[in-house]
Design brief:
- By secondary structure, the chain is α/β, with parallel strands linked by helices.
Length: 263
């Protein structure tokens, strides 16, 4: 697990965007795993800017989103399909028929979950998966107690997650308590994983992910098993790590090695 500690949220977004830019420059038909939430928005703005500057193109790209609220159709303003259109897809040269989000309005959600897994497999698997992290360590909507080898499925949201996301819903507006989410096993199948975290409210989750035990109590700890997982975090999110200077030293040495190898 590579730990990158940066000054602030803007630096985290820029670093994360550059990882995706390099991926698309290396492989124009990449399969991207994408995430919603407040953390990725600035990263998406960086990708939009790079696309408009013709540094990258999304014309050959396929995308798969982590999750969606069960019970919301894609046109609902609080759906993750709507979010992705607003924050990224409407502003880049991507074929929207190649952008996939779990169907929140599926008549048969269980069958839709199996279908989503099949679509990912048919696309050749995900080249690079973007993640955020919840205060309770969830990734996607894989809440604590999720199986570490779980696949795309219907998942009940915890009260903590419902409370955290309540700010996106108006008073009296229906807020789903169920979701369709990629499983932890699905996420671990991605060739590369990039997790972004900012703010002191994520510090406990980051500590548990990096320095805690591999446990379903902290779903993100499963990234300890991944051969190419990068955690890009700001100083606040890193504030409870036991030896931040050590992680910074290791990252500096990694950068020197990559520069020497021309990577």
């Amino acid at each position: 697990m590579q730990i990158v500690i940066l000054k602030d949220s803007a630096s985290v977004a820029e670093y994360g965007a550059n990882i995706f830019i390099k991926q698309l420059q290396k492989k124009a038909d990449s399969v991207l795993g994408l995430a919603t939430g407040s953390t990725p928005v600035s990263l998406y703005q960086g990708l939009i800017a790079a696309n408009k500057a013709k540094q990258i193109s999304f014309a050959g790209v396929k995308t798969f989103n982590l999750d969606e609220y069960l019970g919301l159709e894609g046109s609902h303003p609080q759906s993750y399909r709507y979010f992705m259109n607003e924050q990224l897809f409407d502003h880049i040269d991507i074929d929207k028929s190649k952008t996939f989000v779990p169907p929140g309005d599926a008549v048969n959600p269980i069958e839709a979950c199996h279908g989503y897994e099949a679509q990912i497999t048919a696309a050749g698997g995900i080249d690079i998966q973007l993640l955020g992290i919840g205060r309770n360590g969830h990734i996607g909507f894989n809440e604590p107690s999720s199986g570490l080898m779980s696949r795309t499925r219907v998942k009940t949201l915890t009260k903590a997650t419902i409370d955290d996301n309540a700010r996106f819903f108006k008073d009296g507006e229906y807020q789903p308590h169920l979701s369709i989410t990629m499983g932890i096993g699905t996420i671990l199948d991605a060739k590369k994983v990039v997790l972004l975290a900012t703010g002191e409210n994520k510090a406990d989750a980051i500590k548990a992910t990096v320095e805690g035990a591999l446990t379903a109590a902290c779903p993100a700890s499963a990234l300890q098993l991944h051969q190419d997982a990068v955690l890009v975090i700001d100083e606040a999110a890193a504030s409870k790590l036991s030896d931040r200077d050590f992680y910074k030293h290791i990252e500096a040495e990694n950068q020197k090695l990559m520069a020497r190898l021309g990577l």
